[in-house]
Amino acid sequence: MPVIPLDDHHWALTTPASTYVIGVDLDPDTGEAAPRQTYWGPRLSAEAARQVTALPKRHVSSFSTPAEIEELLPVDGGKRWGSPSLQVTFGDTRSVELRFAGSRRHDEGGGAERLDVLLADAHHPFEVVLSLRVRDDTDVIERWTTVRAGAEAVVTRLDSGNWFVPDAPAYRYSGVFGAWAEETQLQRGLLPVGELVFTSRQGITSHTANPWVMIDAGAATEEHGEVWGVALAWSGSWRLTTTQRPEGGACVSGGFGHDGLRWTLAPGEELVTPPALGLYSDGGFGGASRAWHAYARGHVLPTPAEERPVLYNSWEATTFAVTEAQQLDLAKTAASLGVELFVIDDGWFGRRDDDTTSLGDWFPHRERFPDGLRGMLDGIRDLGMLVGLWVEPEGLSKESELYRAHPDWALHMEHRRRDEKRGQLVLNFARDDVREWAIGWLDGLVTDLRLDYLKWDMNRPFTQAGWPERGGDQDRVWIDHTRGVYEVMRTLRERHPGLRIESCSGGGGRVDLGILRHTDEVWPSDNTDARDRQTVQHGFSQLYPAGAMSAWVTDSPNPTTRREMPLRYRFHVAMAGVLGVGGNLTEWSASELETAAELIAQYKRVRATVQHGAQYRLAGTPGQERSAVQYVLDDQVVVLVYNPLGNAKRGPRTLRLTGLDPEALYELESDGSHWHGATLMGAGIRPAAWEPIGADHRSELVVLTKLCPGR
Ligand code: DGJ
């Protein structure tokens, strides 16, 4: 039973390896209810959890109230001065005072149980429901909040939940930050006293920060130590506020929207947040990542059990200049290499010769495809490949038939400019008519062209994010646009169960556990330089699984960085995710094509393990020194080993594997030799790519097979 009632207002939520104890504090003088977290850590028995609730409360002085950092949803109201998780204005009064209104437990089936804690404002007709879901196969706890108004109320902050991290002398935070073409750079640092805000105010998840944070007490390593993580499943603007009080204690409150956003609830209306997810792990950062990956595969991704096909994408080869002859040429070569899915990128529609025009005009480019796309796509299909197209449904060019017909469909504000970014505006997906239009043409496109795959791009942040017809309630677009995107994707998938979708936003601008509920993979960065990509992939892997990470092999020198790199290195880096090819194959030599075909065939033999297995980041800073990443699934062990600076004398020569069965024997595929798991983990292997005398950018793929124990 994952939710254990300890009394009528305390509960222990149990996961396979953790316990989360909460209760509703009732102030005996005022009657105010404050739902509070009293424990989050290693799994406790019900008896031990009950004891936790009897622990004396924190000392509260007149000038500070560290107690509020333990609250599940600290409100703006009463004796609180921290960053609120819920802020509401009723008429002229900006303050919330809550009363406890009971609780409900729901057996949701499939090993999931939900607890709803019901609260209501002491005076105004305003209900708050804190929902918590625990499952019996993951340590991730899902939390979200619902508010309901009986009379008009203006919500200016509504987080999914506040998570308290147990007391420690000091804390570290880990997160990923970056920029376009430099996404998901892992940053780990001392958590400062005060409030540390990670956020996106862009209307998309953003390249600059990603909606998760992990906290440890400073001692966790890759494979050891306690880590507490919070991630938000949301693809619009968001905010995670981590607070460390000077008196001790830290918490993370996370939710959608951002400061300044107003949501006016009409009488009878409710607002539901996206889920914020919390994970406790005592397996270090690696253990935490594997738990997040398993959660994403088990409870987020729509098609986690499938093996993702090897893809070819034409963007870097042809950019906007898409023609039938050149795509078919590329397709023939791609098919001969073993590519399984051919995706035609930007440039096939409207009058799209560059990025200044045609977003919204989703009909085939009349000059280049006077007879439509069907002939070209059939030609690709005849080569034995699946077929995909690039689309940017939220994009709108001023220079388009759609904009001329519906200028009001763009996000805009009265008496304000309509600023373009990358030559385009944003279509308002909060509008019913826009979503109907989007579903209409996307459904038609997928049906008529029998598409297997869409690459759904989104190439700019919001500006002038208004919707004048909504009057004073225009801020809704910040939330309802994202919900609209989800709805269109969900509808398309329902109508086309075979359709697979890739999320892209100018590279990795929309990578999060919200979009992964509706898409099968994400494009993490427009930077395809294998060295840079290793850093991006390292950061990506902290939360997201390799089976959702698109990774292409492109040309050398790399079109963005001009760095030259051997084909094998480029392949071995891309083989750490969902392998794709994105180079100009018409310029690859016969021997390069032969190597590519050999490596694609190798990838197909290990991809189930890479895409669905347990991932271990073994050694070194990826892209900067000798490093390796390992995947284990059933009896197969796959290790990708990298040495970017071949001649470096310093650094390890042996590579200790991890996560193996110490008692079992493993066969090394390259020479058939047998090794005990204990030897591989204790002493390690000696990768040729790590020998110090040699060229830069050496890499290798090591495959081992587990034999019966003791054989
Ligand atoms: C940005 C994407 O990240 C690229 O891969 C490519 O699809 C371009 N947009 C096309 O405009």
From the N-terminal CA to the C-terminal CA, the straight-line distance is 40 Å
How many DSSP helices?
12
What is the overall silhouette?
A: globular
The major sheet is characterized as:
10 strands, antiparallel
Strand content: 25-35%
Mean pLDDT across all amino acids: 96
Rg over alpha carbons: 26 Å
Helix content: 10-25%
Instruction: Label the structural class.
Output: alpha+beta
The strand count comes to 38
Unreliable residue runs: none
**Which small molecules are bound?**
(2R,3S,4R,5S)-2-(hydroxymethyl)piperidine-3,4,5-triol
Domain Glycosyl hydrolase family 36 C-terminal: 627-704
Keywords: Glycosidase, Hydrolase
InterPro entries: Aldolase_TIM (IPR013785), Alpga-gal_N_sf (IPR038417), Alpha-glycosidase_related (IPR050985), GH (IPR017853), Glyco_hydro_27/36_CS (IPR000111), Glyco_hydro_36 (IPR002252), Glyco_hydro_36_C (IPR031705), Glyco_hydro_36_N (IPR031704)
Family: Belongs to the glycosyl hydrolase.
Descriptive account of the structure:
Strand 34 (about 625-635) and strand 35 (about 635-645) form a beta hairpin. The two termini are about 40 Å apart. Helices cover about 20% and strands about 30% of the residues. Helix 7 runs parallel beside helix 8, helix 9 packs parallel to helix 10 and helix 10 (about 565-575) packs parallel to helix 11. The chain binds (2R,3S,4R,5S)-2-(hydroxymethyl)piperidine-3,4,5-triol (DGJ).
